[in-house]
């Protein structure tokens, strides 16, 4: 039986990877999508865009309930936050999207391969070899995949501050999504999109929030007008912001 050679193999199943896989499949290319984690979707779906937007919706709803009486809605003053249910809803939203991705892979005839993919070297006669390491109960096993073209879509992960170690109080964007309870106070290091989202979420649930930013403005990659307006809104909400701050 001849060895299978894919037209294209994609390493990483985040938004860049899975959209490339779907499009390649639609063009009739024999396509493989390689992912080291147990699920498709990458950071965005599982610990980024989607879960944070789910939590932002919960936070927005909670904020609206605070002002319900002004709109003639009575009986919500005794409202109670069930944080476990908030996290459960977030998980259900993520799972629903993950199942949708799996369906799209099947629909477009994309082969999904679980494991850590690594190119072994330059292409030989126009064919690349990808070594795939698969974790198993008693260690790991290695297999290989042949492909004419490769797309690298590995994404990124949070960079730790030198001298700090993760624990139950020092968290990245991953661990904070699974907090067992709403913290009384929170320091957010960095005011990019991820930082300001978490600041907004937890401030809605009455956490005392402080944002530390090394550069002169909040969301420094945005226009200065946007930065100043967001900082004004956050100050009004009681979120503390310190520009030009360094964490050592």
Number of domains: 2
Give me the count of strands.
Answer: 9
What's the arrangement of strands in the largest beta sheet?
3-2-1-6-5-4
Rounded mean pLDDT score: 93
Shape-level CATH architecture of the largest domain: 3-Layer(bba) Sandwich
Largest sheet: 6 strands, mixed
**CATH class label of the largest domain:** Alpha Beta
**Could you name the CATH topology of the largest domain?**
FAD/NAD(P)-binding domain
Distance between the termini: 60 Å
**Estimated structural class:** alpha/beta
The shape is elongated
CATH superfamily annotation of the largest domain: FAD/NAD(P)-binding domain
β-sheet strand percentage: 15-25%
Sequence of secondary-structure elements: EHEHHHEEEEEHEHE
Description:
With 248 residues, this protein is an alpha/beta fold. It folds into 2 domains: 148 residues, FAD/NAD(P)-binding domain, CATH 3.50.50.60; 69 residues, FAD/NAD(P)-binding domain. Helices cover 35% and strands 24% of the residues. Helix 3 packs antiparallel against helix 4 and helix 3 packs parallel to helix 5. The model has no long low-confidence stretch (mean pLDDT 93).
Quick rundown:
The chain is an alpha/beta fold and 248 residues long. It has helices spanning 15-26, 42-47, 49-66, 83-107, 193-204, 224-236; strands at 5-11, 31-35, 110-114, 116-119, 128-136, 139-152, 185-189, 208-213, 240-243.
């Amino acid at each position: 039986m001849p060895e299978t050679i894919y037209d294209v193999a994609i390493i990483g199943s985040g938004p860049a990877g899975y959209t490339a896989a779907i499009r390649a499949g639609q063009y009739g290319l024999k396509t493989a999508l390689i992912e080291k984690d147990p699920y498709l979707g990458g950071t965005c779906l599982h610990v980024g865009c989607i879960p944070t937007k789910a939590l932002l919706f919960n936070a927005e709803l909670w904020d609206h309930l605070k002002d319900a009486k002004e709109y003639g809605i009575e009986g919500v003053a005794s409202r109670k936050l069930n944080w476990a249910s908030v996290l459960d809803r977030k998980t259900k939203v993520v799972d629903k999207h993950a199942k949708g991705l799996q369906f799209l892979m099947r629909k477009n005839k994309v082969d999904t391969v679980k494991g850590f993919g690594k190119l072994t070297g330059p292409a030989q006669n126009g064919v690349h070899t990808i070594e795939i390491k698969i974790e198993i109960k008693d260690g790991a096993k290695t297999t290989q995949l042949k492909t004419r073209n490769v797309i690298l879509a590995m994404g990124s992960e949070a960079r730790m501050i030198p001298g700090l170690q993760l624990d139950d109080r020092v968290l990245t964007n991953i661990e904070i999504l699974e907090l067992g309870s709403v913290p009384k106070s929170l320091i957010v290091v960095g005011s990019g999109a991820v930082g300001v989202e978490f600041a907004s979420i937890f401030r809605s649930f009455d956490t005392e929030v402080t944002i530390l930013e090394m550069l002169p403005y909040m969301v420094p990659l945005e226009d200065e007008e946007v930065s100043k307006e967001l900082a004004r809104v956050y100050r009004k909400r009681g979120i503390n912001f310190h520009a030009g701050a360094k964490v050592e």
